[in-house]
Amino acid sequence: MSTDRELFDCIVIGAGVQGSFTAYSLAKRGKRTLLLEQFVLPHSRGSSHGQTRIIRKAYVQEFYVHMMEECYKLWAEVEREAGVQLYRQTGLLVMGPENSESYTSVKNTLLKCSAPTVSLTRENFSSHIPNMVLSPGNGAIVDLTGGVLFADRALKTAQDQFKKYGGVLRDQEKVVDIKPGAVVTVTTLAKTYRARSVVITAGPWANKLLAPTGLQLPLEVLRINVCYWKEKTPGSYHVNNRFPCFILTEREQTDQQIYGLPSNEYPGLVKICLHTGSPTDPDHRDRQRDRSDVDILSRYVSCCVPGLDPEPAIVESCMYTNTPDHHFVLDRHPQHSNIVIGAGFSGHGFKFGPIIGKLLCELSLGEVPSFDLSPFRIRRFEGLSRSAL
Ligand SMILES: Cc1cc2nc3c(=O)[nH]c(=O)nc-3n(C[C@H](O)[C@H](O)[C@H](O)COP(=O)(O)OP(=O)(O)OC[C@H]3O[C@@H](n4cnc5c(N)ncnc54)[C@H](O)[C@@H]3O)c2cc1C
């Protein structure tokens, strides 16, 4: 096996949204950066594929709102730099039982952080959001900053800009070993590389990559059924008809969120999914065939989104990598400070791509990160993880 003679400042492993934006941030700062991806790009085997994701400030925790305040600016910066549109503002309708903790916390955080919002009443709901039913006892507030990110385009843009800044992207190069040290050695199926630091952003494969470094995180990989529902009257839920993205914080049949996006990427089809799935192995994703989530969604669609056919027309798959508290892991390896980990994005990480890229870049350069990363430390898992941390 040949060894690349070049000593990189950083090797980023995994070209999903987090790895691509980390590599982009490093190259933009003039660092000699290699981005390695196991599959031929683009691919649909991880968590970052598909045409759309929701972007929003609506969160329970204020730290996410503050991260998003900067992240909106970073998305706009990438759009300007590359001359492409990545974000379309639609508003995000948040609904939930008026007195529930899940709904009131999101609403209170939005108001406390002075995010632009509009509160809807039962009386004016249908004039603002036609073709949708607000369940009895539910409240509704619109996060006006919410909208759609064009996911595939965003991923390609981050990778293209990375290359424009001089970064080296090698796909179809699966990393099979990482040897820690002052200079880290990374071995792929094709070559051996060396770098001053390494960032691991391997999504559902994070623990497989961490194994040679002696660390395992409490991550659970879930297969998600990505369901598309057909409009009975074409155009009734289209983005151009001002239908927003939406989140239902909870419902009788499930304490898991249900979320949806207007029809856009597939004409006449609206994406509505449950914010959970069933455990799977990322190398055998489709062996998992549980569809109990689809039954929950069918019942929801038939009662609350009556303009859609209550059987999904298309079901695709994607994966979440969940931590026990659903907060991310953004930290240095406990034993090897020049190995940085971005993992456990728990089904809500896409919108943060540019800010996560910036923070992982700062960690890999040994800098003090520009946000307080205490909610994202590995230490919080002490006593939970499968090996000593
Ligand atoms: C159905 C669905 C809907 C979602 N909706 C939203 C949303 O509306 N808003 C939002 O903000 N987020 C959303 N998310 C979450 C978001 O998409 C993820 O948090 C994000 O894509 C995670 O990115 P990642 O880079 O960590 O992982 P990935 O995209 O999985 O990237 C990891 C990469 O590492 C590569 N890799 C792994 N092992 C190796 C190896 N050994 N060698 C080389 N390469 C390797 C993989 O092939 C992969 O390309 C959603 C996710 C899903 C599945």
Question: How are the SSEs placed, and which strands pair?
Answer:
Blueprint: E1 2-13, H1 17-28, E2 33-36, E3 52-55, H2 62-82, E4 87-89, E5 92-97, H3 101-112, E6 117-120, H4 125-128, E7 138-143, E8 147-150, H5 151-164, E9 168-170, E10 175-179, E11 184-188, E12 191-200, H6 206-210, E13 220-230, E14 245-248, E15 258-261, E16 269-274, E17 278-279, H7 292-304, E18 314-322, E19 329-332, E20 339-343, H8 353-364
Parallel strand pairs: 1-2, 1-12, 2-9, 5-14, 12-20
Antiparallel strand pairs: 3-8, 4-8, 5-7, 6-7, 10-11, 11-12, 13-16, 13-17, 13-18, 14-15, 15-16, 19-20
The structure holds flavin-adenine dinucleotide.
What order do the SSEs take from the amino end to the carboxyl end, as H and E? EHEEHEEHEHEEHEEEEHEEEEEHEEEH
**Secondary structure tally: strands:** 20
Q: Assign a percent range to the helix content.
A: 10-25%
CATH structural architecture of the largest domain? 3-Layer(bba) Sandwich
Low-confidence stretches: none
Q: What is the CA-CA span between the terminal residues?
A: 33 Å
The CATH topology of the largest domain corresponds to FAD/NAD(P)-binding domain
- Major sheet description: 9 strands, mixed
Q: Quickly count the domains.
A: 2
CATH superfamily of the largest domain: FAD/NAD(P)-binding domain
Enumerate the distinct ligands. flavin-adenine dinucleotide
Structural class: alpha+beta
Q: Which whole number gives the mean pLDDT?
A: 95
Characterization of this structure:
With 389 residues, this protein is an alpha+beta fold. The chain folds into two domains: 2-48 and 152-217 and 325-381, FAD/NAD(P)-binding domain, CATH 3.50.50.60; 92-144 and 220-322, 2-Layer Sandwich (D-Amino Acid Oxidase, Chain A, domain 2). The chain has eight helices and 20 strands. The protein has helices at 17-28, 62-82, 101-112, 125-128, 151-164, 206-210, 292-304, 353-364; strands at 2-13, 33-36, 52-55, 87-89, 92-97, 117-120, 138-143, 147-150, 168-170, 175-179, 184-188, 191-200, 220-230, 245-248, 258-261, 269-274, 278-279, 314-322, 329-332, 339-343. The strands form three sheets. Strands 5, 6, 7, 13, 14, 15, 16, 17 and 18 form a nine-stranded mixed β-sheet that branches. Strands 1, 2, 9, 10, 11, 12, 19 and 20 form an eight-stranded mixed β-sheet that branches. A hairpin with a 4-residue loop joins β10 and β11 (184-188). α1 packs parallel to α5 and α1 crosses α8 (353-364). The model has no long low-confidence stretch (mean pLDDT 95). Bound molecules: flavin-adenine dinucleotide. GO terms for molecular function: flavin adenine dinucleotide binding; L-pipecolate oxidase activity; sarcosine oxidase activity. One of its GO terms (biological process) is L-lysine catabolic process to acetyl-CoA via L-pipecolate. Pfam families: DAO.
